[in-house]
Amino acid sequence: MVGVTLLDRHIARRFLGNWLALIVALFAFVVTVDLFLNLKRFLRAARALDPDGSGVKTAAATALAVIDLWGPRLLQLFNHLGGLVLVLAAGFTAASLVRKRELVAALASGLSLQRLSAPIFAGALAVTALQAINQEYVLPRVAHLLPRDAGDVGQRRLESFGVPLLRDGAGRLWRARAFDPASNRLEGVVVWERDERGRVTRRISADAADWTGDAWRFEGGVAQRPGQAGAAGRAEPVAELATDLAPTLILVRRVEGFGQSLSWRQIRAALAQRSAPLDDATRRELTRTAFGRISFMLSNLCVLAIAMPFFMTRAPVNLAARSLRASPIVAVGLIGSVVGVTNPLPGLPVALAVFFPALVLAPIALVRLAGMRT
């Protein structure tokens, strides 16, 4: 029993070591390519940070600029590359075990290939859990930094943008000259309150508004009813207005891809708004994003299970040939998972349709694992 435990730890350590080496190599490759493509912009940003710096200082500032831009991006890339890196790490681990005859020795002791694959799947589950933690707790904190490009190095916030007409759960229409995502502040706010027929019953205007958690607190807020615009002294002061139009919902509507970086809790809060400023397409997109993450992680594990029999063999074989045979199957599984999650089947609820890839891959994975000849 002790020997089996030591063997499990040995295989798991080797798998996680290969996974770490591969993820670092892929990150370095991606960052290096982008660095050479945007070197002038990075140097310009570095000189802007330290105009009088020497060559060494400029190089150091350039490195910091790259880290500033790519740090949040790599956290996002870490989740996107999950399935591919898991399969590659499993392949390298199995190849090493086969080449050194360690699998032969383990099989001679009475262990099956399915049992020897367990530490690899345990490591894959640990990596998947790490991806889930990253998605839920880390990415939402840096989501506002992801839309930046090489020219925005050093900026710690999204630029302010104008807010067009947005509807809240009470049917009001909101418009603002500018919205600052860093401070959750609206400038030049106008709100139209309407009745059931859509007719304006009151118009509220304010110089600015700050979000308090469940309401916008106005600065210089006044309200006028139809026909009172020219009547002196008829304006009503308005201190704040409770609404479900939260800053997160404004960002979801205005910043492309922002919803993909929200946590499950944030997405659920956005979807829980009674009618919110989210149209049906946006609501479907957020629902697909939330449940699609679970489906994507399950699909990655299924693809790993489908690929394992190509690498875990009873005797040394030509693993290069087996890798070529596995490549199209793995590629179809991973690409199909992405396509199935982002484009669920019509006619089915979004929360159910996104699991179609996992439902297709799961039985194939079970058959492949059960069919491993030991």
Topology, element by element:
Elements: H1 2-37, H2 39-49, H3 55-80, H4 82-99, H5 102-108, H6 113-142, E1 161-167, E2 173-180, E3 185-194, E4 200-211, E5 215-219, E6 222-224, E7 236-237, E8 240-242, H7 247-254, H8 264-271, H9 280-311, H10 319-342, H11 350-353, H12 356-370
Antiparallel strand pairs: 1-2, 2-3, 3-4, 4-5, 4-6, 5-8, 6-7
Task: Please tag this protein with its features.
374 residues, eight-stranded antiparallel sheet, 12 helices, alpha+beta, flat
Helical coverage, percent range: 55-70%
Flag low-confidence runs.
none
pLDDT averaged over residues: 83
Quickly count the domains. Answer: 2
* Oligomeric state, counting identical vs distinct chains: single chain
Using the alpha-carbon principal axes, give the shape: flat
Q: Total strand count, please?
A: 8
What fraction strand? 5-15%
C-alpha termini separation: 20 Å
Secondary-structure element sequence? HHHHHHEEEEEEEEHHHHHH
The helix tally amounts to 12
Main sheet: strands, sense, barrel: 8 strands, antiparallel
**Radius of gyration in whole Å, from Cα?**
27 Å
Structural class: alpha+beta
